[in-house]
Each structure stands twice: as structure tokens, then as C-alpha cells.
Amino acid sequence: MFPTKYLQAIFPVFNTTRTKDILHVNPTVVPARLEAKEVVIDIIQYNSTDVKFHTLTTVTECAMHVQEGYVTWINIDGLRKADVETVSKLFNIHYLVIEDILSVNQRPKVDDFDHHLVCLLNMLYFNTPKRSVEQEQISIILGKNYVITFQEDASRDVFDSLRDRLKLNNHKLRISGADYLCYALLDTIVDHYFLVMENLSEVIETVEEEVIRYGNTKSLARINSLRKELIVLKRNVAPVKDLVSGVLRSESDLLEERNTKYFKDVYDHIVQANDMVENYRDVMMGMQDLYMNKANLRMNEVMKVMTIVTCLLAPATVIGGIFGMNFDRIPYLHHEYGFFIAVSLMLLIPIWMIWIFKRRGWF
User: Fold this and answer.
1) Residues 203, 111 share a domain
2) pLDDT tens-place string over residues 279-335
3) Which one of 55, 220, 299, 328 is at 20 to 30 Å from 282 when CA atoms are compared?
4) What are the Cα distances from residue 148, in Å, to 13, 95, 101, 247, 285?
5) Burial class (CB in 10 A: 0-12, 13-18, 19+), 265
6) Domain match, 282 and 352 both
7) How many other C-beta atoms lie within 10 A of the C-beta of residue 270?
């Protein structure tokens, strides 16, 4: 039995399982979320002069680290229902937010509550070996002087650059409030979208070159696979535009007016990302049309060769048929050079036909 990778090299693979994962979303059915095996709780307290880093073992200690004079960032990697409910109880978070945090395949959105501003969106990663776009749900809860973030996967995190900036004295983050931290989180996520799209664009260029050079069935399988990844990309990028727009329209007291310009910058970035996704989609549609045109062109070339061969064999068929008839009197039937004359005609007429075809530019 051949290994799977060799079978994939011989036969084109159309991944229908990936299609089911992407398109099979039913909001009326609440999917069961698996409990995280590992939960990492990090807390950063900072102000203009001081920064403190804490790592907790239980979420019950989170509330005591929210202090006056500090902005507190509570980051929880790994989702467990009991932990989310405990944190929500400690910070008086609405039960609808708990459902959104624990949901699966939730559409990116923003909700404005009395004491909290909740942003829910997906972080995207590009899996290079599989050539697929993977997503991780990020929940950002903005409160007074604190921000709580919930992440699904404790093994992946794109906020390290943000933590490094918090270590710098006199950085904009250190002298700003919790709403600026919320902006920085959103900006980091949106900026990471461009890295994912850059990796995806390299794959698109590779497949496009393959279609131009070969244009076989394997190319069609890869085009189909890339179209599915673009669906994932568009599904996660496009709604973020409405999310940031909702933050800009929000009249929450948690948002300072002086920081509006920063959220507008995020809005500009997500609009640009959305335009890039549309461009990739147009490229994929053009690539599919190119494959079909190339396949039709190849078929036309084959039909042209077969037609020319048929035309060149027609004189020999006619001459052979005439001299093969069962009549008593046929010209040159008993001639000394009759056979050579017939064969010469069978060769000369196709050569003359080739000259005519070449002169008319048929090939």
C-alpha cells in the first residue's frame, strides 16, 4: 500500500473535508467546545513609571491585580468554561459575553455594554506545510483601567511585540489608558492579517506559474484549495471592518476622544486588507479562467493535429479503396509500374497538401 503523500503526488487531491469545515456553520446549533488542556494566565500592570509582570495559576486572583493608578492587561490563553464564568463573575461581565467567548466560529463583532466594551474577532495564522489559513478566536474586553483578553490556543500568541513595547519607558502605551491598549491589540491582530496574506500570495504566485507552465488536473485541485482558503480569509477579515467602525461610533465612556484617530488608523488598515482579499479573489477567478482557456487551447491543438493527420491520410485511403475494388477492368491494374505509381500518389498528394496548409498558415 502506497503512503498518502505518494498517492497525492500521483492523483490530484480535492479536499472536500476542508469544504465541510469552512461552509458548515449553523448558528442555531451550539457546537461543543473542547476544554483547553493548558491554561496560561499572564497579567501586566503598568503606568508611566512602573511595569509589573505576573503569572497566575488560577483566575480567581485576577481581580486583586486591578489597582488604581495602573492599567492592567489580563491575558488568558486557553479556554475553560469554569474559568470564563469565574472571570465574568469577578468583573461583572454580562452572560451574553460568556456565550460569545465560548462560542465556535463566531462572526467578528463589537458589543457595547454599560461597563464594558467587547470586541470579538479571529487571529489568523498561515500553516505553511498544509498551505491553509487557520483561525483562533480572540475576545477583548475593555473595562475601566483594565483589558481582558481570552485566547483559544496557549501555544500561539502574536502579542509578544506588544509586551516588549510595554517594557520601554516613555512609550505611548505606558502613558496612555486602557482604551489605547485595546487599540494596540486590535492593531496587532490586523497587522498580522497582512503577514498571512503575504504568505498566501506567495502560494498563489506559485500556483499561477504552475498553471501557465503545465495546467494539469493537479493545478485545478490547487486552485480549488486556494479558493477555500480565500473564503476563510474573507470571512474573518471583512467583518472586522464593521467591528472597528462600531468602536468609532461607540459613545462609551471607556473610550477617550483623543484616541479616536488611532482606531481610524486601524480602520484604514482593515479596509486595505479587505481590498487585498478582493484582489486575491479576482486573481483566483482569473487563474481558473486561465486554466479553462489553456485546457480548451490544448484540446484545440490536439483536434487540429488529428484533423491534419486525417486529411493527409485521406488520399491514400481513396487511392487504396479505388484499386481495391473487385472489378475486372481497372486502369493500371496489370501495369508493370502500377503499384509504384499508386504509392507515389499516396506520398506526393499529402506532401502537396502539407505545402498548401503551410502556405495558408494553418499550422
Assistant:
1) yes
2) 998 988 888 888 888 888 888 888 888 888 888 889 888 888 888 887 777 787 777
3) 299
4) 42, 15, 12, 17, 41
5) middle
6) no
7) 25
| Domain co-membership, 162 together with 277 | yes
Q: In the beta sheet, which residues pair with residue 45?
A: 52, 72
- Give the C-alpha separation, 69 to 47, whole Å: 7
Domain enclosing residue 27, as ranges: 4-294
* Residue 138 CB neighbours (<10 A): 22
Residue 187 CA neighbour count, 13 Å, CB half: 17
SS3 state at 234: helix
Closest CA to 233 of 132, 312, 329: 132
Question: Strand locations in the chain, DSSP E?
Answer: 40-46, 51-56, 71-77, 109-112, 117-127, 132-143, 146-151
> Which segments in the chain show pLDDT lower than 70?
1-32
The pLDDT of residue 304 is 85
Report yes or no on whether pTM surpasses 0.85.
no
